[in-house]
Specification:
By secondary structure, the chain is α+β, with helices and mostly antiparallel strands. The chain folds into two domains: about 200 residues, PPM-type phosphatase domain (Phosphatase 2c, domain 1, 4-Layer Sandwich); about 30 residues, no CATH class. It contains nine helices and eleven strands. The protein has a six-stranded antiparallel sheet, covered by helices on one side. Helix 1 crosses helix 2 and helix 7 packs across helix 8. It is globular and about 50 Å long. The termini are close together. The C terminus is likely disordered.
Length: about 270
């Protein structure tokens, strides 16, 4: 696992962790001013949601991933609903990617614009994503490009975009409503024949979907040869080359799925 903040000295608002049968990636989201709605902050929300979900994945193996995510959202909301305005549009939220090995199957869930990639022996990865936010964002892109990043106009456009969040016809993320979990992209496939899997925050998936440094087969080959840190290094190079502000970048990369997951005696967790 590799998780790198957007820049030195900035709090990393991503979370990544694993237990013997599952892995979780959380990409926290917030905009300036959210401190007025939640005293804890985005990093706290992401870490609390990810830690709670990992615990549920360990202790409740017989329930579906959307149910477990809904419970985790409810738990973290309960943790701060008495002190924070959890329903405010700019309150902390997060995207989620999860995979779990169970009875010879690899189950997965993606909510929001994180990515999950499954690599097989044929070298053609299965890429799982939730494109709704990207699709809706296209109509706001001209105004965002025309506004200086960080300006009041820029943040106004972001607020307008986020008004489409967690509503029918919009896009869905983890926030304060556990029903968002029912909107996640889910599926499963036999673990036999899978060689590797990767969870990527949208700050890391830029290597393919924004900058086109490589394609998904190339990204998985780079992970296999050089590991997650090299992928993030190349993302940072591309951001600098294109003059694009960096984002927190997190990757969970798994190999030997059939041999390791479900049999390891301990747990590994990686955060900030």
């Amino acid at each position: 696992m590799t998780s790198v903040a957007a820049r030195p000295g900035r709090v990393n608002e991503d979370f990544a962790g694993a237990v013997p049968t599952a892995a979780v990636l959380i990409d926290g989201a917030g905009i300036p001013g959210s401190e007025s709605t939640c005293r804890h902050g985005v990093a706290w929300y992401a870490g609390r949601l990810g830690g709670g979900l990992l615990g549920l994945l360990s202790l409740v193996p017989d329930r579906g991933l959307p149910e477990l995510l809904a419970d985790a959202i409810e738990q973290v909301t309960d943790d701060h609903r008495d002190t924070c305005d959890v329903a405010a549009p700019i309150a902390p939220s997060a995207t989620v990617a999860v995979l779990r090995v169970s009875d010879g199957l690899l189950e997965y869930l993606v909510l929001g614009d994180s990515f999950l990639v499954l690599d097989g022996a044929d070298g053609v990865p299965l890429v799982v994503s939730d494109p709704r936010e990207v699709i809706i964002s296209r109509s706001f892109l001209p105004a965002l490009v025309a506004s200086p990043e960080g300006s009041e106009e820029y943040h106004r456009v972001l607020r307008d975009l986020r008004a489409h969040r967690n509503r029918p016809g919009g896009f869905w993320v983890a926030k304060n409503d556990p029903r968002a979990a029912d909107e996640a992209v889910t599926g499963s496939c036999p673990i036999r024949g899978l060689t590797a899997a990767a969870l990527l925050s949208n700050g890391a998936s830029r290597i393919v979907d924004r900058f086109g440094v490589t394609d998904w087969p190339g990204a998985m080959a780079l992970l296999a040869s050089s590991g997650p840190a090299e992928v993030v290094r190349r993302v940072r190079q591309a951001e600098a080359r294109h003059g694009v502000a960096a984002d927190d970048a997190t990757i969970v990369y798994l190999t030997g799925l059939g041999e390791r997951m479900g049999s390891a005696p301990g747990a590994v967790r990686d955060g900030r």
